[in-house]
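Apologies for my clumsy wording, but are you able to produce some protein sequence, whichever is easiest, and the C-alpha cells describing how it folds?
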Amino acid sequence: MSPDARGDRTAPALVPFLPLLLFLLLTPLTACDLPRDPVGTLDRVRGDTLRVGVVAAPPYLVRSGERAGGPEADLIRAFAGRIGAEVEWRWGSLDDHMESLEAFELDLVAGGLTTASPWKKKVGFTRPWRVEGKRKHVLAVPPGENGMLVALEALIEARKERR
C-alpha cells in the first residue's frame, strides 16, 4: 500500500514549521564573526595606539610624570603588547574619561574602577581583574565593543591562571 493510500500526512504536517526550522539552522551561520565591535576599536588599535584614560588610584594605578605604574598599568601594558599597540596614557578626571569613552574618543579607562560604579550602565566593564573582599576591580571599554572586551578578558583570565 502506498503512503498516499494510507493517508500518511507527515510531510505536509511539517510545512508550517519549515520557516522556524530554517531559522534555527541558519542563525548560527550569521554569528561566525562574533564577537563584534560596532566601531571596530580592537581592529583600530591592533598594531597602532591604545588611548587609555587614566586616573591615579594608588596602589592600583600610580602616576609617574606622564607614565603610569602599578598592577593596573601592568595589565594594560601586557594587553597592548599582546595586540602590538603602543599605550598613550591620558591623565584626567574619571567623569571626563568615561564621557570620552562613551563617545569612542578613548579605547580604555582605568583607575580603581569597580563593579559598583554607576558607569556600568553606559560603558562596558571587564570581568574583575582583582577581587578584594566585596570590591571587584575592572577596566572600562567603549559601549558595545565586545571584541575589545573579550580580548581583554582573555588576558585577565590567563593572568589569573598563572597565579
